[in-house]
Amino acid sequence: MALVSVIVPVYDEEENVDPLYQAVDRALSGRDFDFELVLVDDGSKDRTYERAAALVERDPRVRVVKFRRNYGQTAAMAAGVEVARGDVLVTMDGDLQNDPEDIPRLLEQIEKGFDIAIGWRRKRKDGGARVFISKIANRIMTYIMGIAVRDSGCSLKAYRAELIKGIPMYGEMHRFIPALSQLAGARLVELEVNHRPRQFGVSKYGFSRIQKVMLDIVTIRVLLSYARAPLTWHLKVVGLSFLLDLLAFGYVVFGRPESLVVAGGIAMVLFSLTLFLVVWGLAGGLFAAVEPNVSRYAEIAAKLSSRLTPLNPASQEGL
C-alpha cells in the first residue's frame, strides 16, 4: 500500500484533537507507507474545528472536513471516505478510546489479502449497561443478516478503499458495513484491539442512538429484501390485502342490507390499499433500474440467505 487514510469523525472533542494527532503520528510515522489524517468536524460547538485547522497549518498530512451542523457519525464517516485518497482507509473514534497503535496490526491483515480488518473490543472500558445492550444488538444483527461480527460497534476498522467507497451509507449504517461487505463476498478478519477509558470530554453515545441502531437493523433487512426483488418483495402483503378485499366485497353482495354501507366502505379502502401496493411495487422496479445505490444493494442482497439462518461463527474465515 502506498497511502493509508485515517478517518476520524470528531464532535465537541477539542481536548482530544491534539493528543489524537500525536498518537496517530507516533503509530504510523517512519513506516513503509505514507499516511494522511482526515478529521471530519461534525458540527462541533466548541473549538474542535479551530484545533483541527491549526494542525493543517503544521502538518500537510492532516486534512479537515467541516460540517455546518451535526449530522451524525455515519454522515461524517461517509464524508471522510469520499475525500480520502488512500489505498486503505482506517476509521476510528475521535475520543481516544481506540488506540492508534493497533492500526499497523490491522494493516498487516489487509496486506495478507483480507478486505476488511475489524477491531474487537474484548475488554471494553464502557459502562455495563452499554456493553450489554451492544451485545444484544450484535446478536440481533447476526440473526437478521446471517453474518457473525462480534463487535460491529467498534469504529476501529481498516478497509480496502475500493470496497468501502462502493457502499452507500445513511443513518447509523457504518456499523453494518462489514456485514454487508461480507454478503458481497469480501474477506473479513477480526482482531482483538485495545480499548481505553475516555480521558477528556463526554460520551456522545446514549440510549437514543440505540433506538436508531435497532431501526437501522430492520431498515437494512427490508432494504435488502426490496433490492433483491423490488417488484415482488411485498407480495404477501398485497395478497393478504387482496384476499380481505374479496371477503369484504363478498359481504357487500351476499351480506345483510343494513351492513352494506360499512362493508362497502371497508371494501373500497382495501381495494385502494391493494392498488397502492401494486403501484408501489411497479414504481420500486423502476427506481431500482435507475438508482445506482439500489443496484449496489441488489448485488449484496443476492448473497443474503432467504431463511435468515445465522451462520456458524466458527465457519467464518478469519472470525
Index terms:
single chain, 319 residues, alpha/beta, 7-stranded mixed sheet, 11 helices, 7 strands
Describe this structure in words.
The protein is an alpha/beta fold and 319 residues long. It contains 11 helices and 7 strands. β2 (34-41), α2 (48-58) and β3 (62-66) form a beta-alpha-beta unit.
Characterize the largest beta sheet: strand count, sense, and whether it forms a barrel.
7 strands, mixed
Strand content: 5-15%
Number of strands: 7
Rounded radius of gyration (Å): 24 Å
User: How confident is the prediction overall: mean pLDDT?
Assistant: 79
Taking pLDDT < 50 over at least 5 consecutive residues as the criterion, the unreliable ranges are: 303-319
> Strand-and-helix sequence, N→C?
EHEHEHEHEHEHHEHHHH
- Biggest sheet: strands side by side, in what order? 3-2-1-4-6-5-7
Structural class: alpha/beta
Our count of helices gives 11
Report the helical percentage.
40-55%
Q: How does the overall form come out from the CA principal axes?
A: elongated
End-to-end separation: 24 Å
Secondary-structure topology with pairs:
Layout: E1 3-10, H1 14-28, E2 34-41, H2 48-58, E3 62-66, H3 73-83, E4 88-91, H4 103-111, E5 116-120, H5 128-145, E6 157-160, H6 161-164, H7 177-183, E7 188-192, H8 207-228, H9 235-254, H10 260-290, H11 292-301
Parallel strand pairs: 1-2, 1-4, 2-3, 5-7
Antiparallel strand pairs: 4-6, 5-6
Helix pairs in contact: 1-2, 5-8, 8-11, 9-10, 10-11
